[in-house]
Amino acid sequence: MAKYNSKALEITYNSVAIEGSGSSLDVDETQGAEDVTSFGEDDGAYIAGGVTHRKASFNAFAEDDDTIYDELVPGTSSTLEWYPQGNSSGKPKKSVTAIVTSRKRSFGVGKAVLISSEFQLSGAVTDTVVA
After folding, report:
1. Range of the domain at 109
2. Do the domain assignments include residue 118?
């Protein structure tokens, strides 16, 4: 299978492109293993099949007009879409309902201003291709 890099990554939230000055998008999926250890057992026993939880974090360099920062308001819920290989016909597309749970703006002497945002993803991520 061919490999690709994230240079072509495109991201939208609430139909607004937010990747323009983006530096990373991390999508984390976790699923607990249910503890079924019984009395008298010396070692833990677990079964698969817990609930999958998904979160995402996004980091970008701040822009003068604050377009990205203004879009990522905590408490808002909309569709988060990302196109790992770019938004062109036949390329993969991922989408999910996302709730912005936090945003931060970081200022450092002699450094670019950074913004970061955290999302709680709700439901399954839909895998399709760009039409």
Report:
1. 6-29+49-125
2. yes
Q: Name the domain count of the chain.
A: 1
- Enter the pTM of the model: 0.87
Beta bridge partners of 92: 129
pLDDT per residue rounded down to tens, the chain (131 residues): 778 888 899 999 999 999 888 999 999 999 988 899 999 999 999 998 878 999 999 999 998 889 899 999 999 999 999 999 999 999 999 999 999 999 999 998 989 999 999 999 999 999 999 99
Contact 78, 105 (CB under 8 A): no
| Token representation of residue 120 | 């709680």
Distance of CA 57 to the CA centre of its chain: 5
- DSSP per residue over 20-86, as a string? TTEEEEEEEEEEPPEE-PPTT-SS--EES---EEEEEEEEEE--TT-HHHHH--TT-EEEEEEETT-
- Give φ, ψ of 126 to 5 degrees: -90, 125
Q: Quick check: is 13 in a domain?
A: yes
